[in-house]
Amino acid sequence: MTVTVRSFAKINLGLSIGGLRPDGFHDLRTVYQTIALHDIIRVQVGRGTGIEIHCDDPRVPKDQTNTCYRIAERAMASLRASGRVAITIEKRLPVQGGLGAGSGNAVATLLALERALKKKLPGAERLRIAAEVGSDLPLFLVGGTVLGVGRGEEVYPLPDLSTAHCVIVTPGIGVSTPAAFADWDAMASGQAAELRSARTAEGGRPHVDRADAKLTPQLPSDRMIEFGRAVSAWLSGQPLSGVPVSRGRGRAETSLLDLVRTGIENDFEQVVFPKYPELREVKSVLERAGAFYASLSGSGSAIYGFFRSRTAGQKAVARLQRDGIPAVVTTTLTRRQYWRKFPVSGF
């Protein structure tokens, strides 16, 4: 039996990078949001042993380094199952694009494998396995609007944002996440040294003129606290679960705008944009075209922008495509939409 599922993408609504942890990862704060763009994953279990990966995209590894391979290997052991697992990946999402394509592929493989085997892992075991394979994986076991903390693998469902029109721009640039973190560490180290040198003997606080206050670098812990406060402020304005929202421009329609008004940003832009200035220009194009919020997703290279109508988004896409830049209009997915659209066949 072949089970076919959609493997949806995600974007990051703000991303705050904390300090380097003893385990080599960074503390993160982010709001994940699933979107309708997707790959297709097909899983079949037959006689024999082993795991094989099939994909026409040469950039996708076919060995043990593939996240689908790694999660299938762990799932087969946890389910105490046997058989030869064949995983086919139909790529529609970019590789190294900041849209969580590889992570989403892995979670889709896990759930399709359970269906093919007619066995099911407990929810906590799914999350454990997903977090072992990668930081972005657990969010795809939740879907919709999700808070990510820790190194991003600790996830909590948030009140769903209403469906919004979103333009996704996928420049032909592969941004290495490890390299982006390394650049961040180098920048943060320089900022920390600057703060230390600016400290005065009295009170140990940096002396900064009011006019230069905005230029003062922040320590990672300060940035994490600010992000947490912004999300908490947004959550405090959300309607209680189960309380109906009036039609028209009610809370459901303005919740996304309320969130972006908190000033959330993606810290990766500080190190990725100087290295790839063309990505900063793409963000500017989206903003000039009417996006009420535009941002890098993850470490990039995908850039997204939110528009108040599909027509406005399509105009922005046409403008980008005239310059040879790949772009498409899509929508965000609520949690219910995510799980309703997830299966294709075999369910």
In short:
The chain has ten helices and eleven strands. By secondary structure, it is an alpha+beta fold.
CATH topology of the largest domain: Ribosomal Protein S5, domain 2
Query: What is the CATH top level name of the largest domain?
Result: Alpha Beta
Helix-strand category: alpha+beta
Helicity level? 25-40%
Order of helices and strands: EEEHEHHEEEHHHHHEEHEHE
Q: Which band does the percent of strand residues land in?
A: 15-25%
Largest sheet descriptor? 7 strands, mixed
Domain unit count = 2
Cα end-to-end separation: 11 Å
Number of helical regions:
10
- Principal-axis shape: globular
Secondary structure: elements and pairs:
Elements: E1 2-20, E2 26-46, E3 51-55, H1 67-78, E4 84-90, H2 101-117, H3 123-133, E5 145-149, E6 154-157, E7 165-169, H4 177-198, H5 220-236, H6 251-261, H7 269-275, H8 277-288, E8 293-296, E9 303-307, H9 310-322, E10 327-331, H10 335-341, E11 343-345
Parallel strand pairs: 3-4
Antiparallel strand pairs: 1-2, 1-11, 2-4, 2-5, 5-6, 7-9, 7-10, 8-9
Main attributes of the structure:
347 residues, alpha+beta, Ribosomal Protein S5, domain 2, Alpha-Beta Plaits, 2 domains, 7-stranded mixed beta sheet, 4-stranded antiparallel beta sheet, 10 helices, globular
Structural summary, described in words:
The protein is an alpha+beta fold and 347 residues long. It folds into two domains: 2-160 and 337-345, Ribosomal Protein S5, domain 2; 177-335, Alpha-Beta Plaits, CATH 3.30.70. It has ten helices and eleven strands. It has helices at 67-78, 101-117, 123-133, 177-198, 220-236, 251-261, 269-275, 277-288, 310-322, 335-341, and strands spanning 2-20, 26-46, 51-55, 84-90, 145-149, 154-157, 165-169, 293-296, 303-307, 327-331, 343-345. The strands form two sheets. Strands 1, 2, 3, 4, 5, 6 and 11 form a seven-stranded mixed β-sheet that branches. Helix 1 (67-78) runs parallel beside helix 2 (101-117), helix 1 (67-78) packs antiparallel against helix 3 (123-133) and helix 7 crosses helix 8 (277-288). The longest helix is centred in the middle third of the chain and has 22 residues, at 177-198. It is globular and about 60 Å long. The model is unreliable at 208-216 and 240-253 (pLDDT under 50).
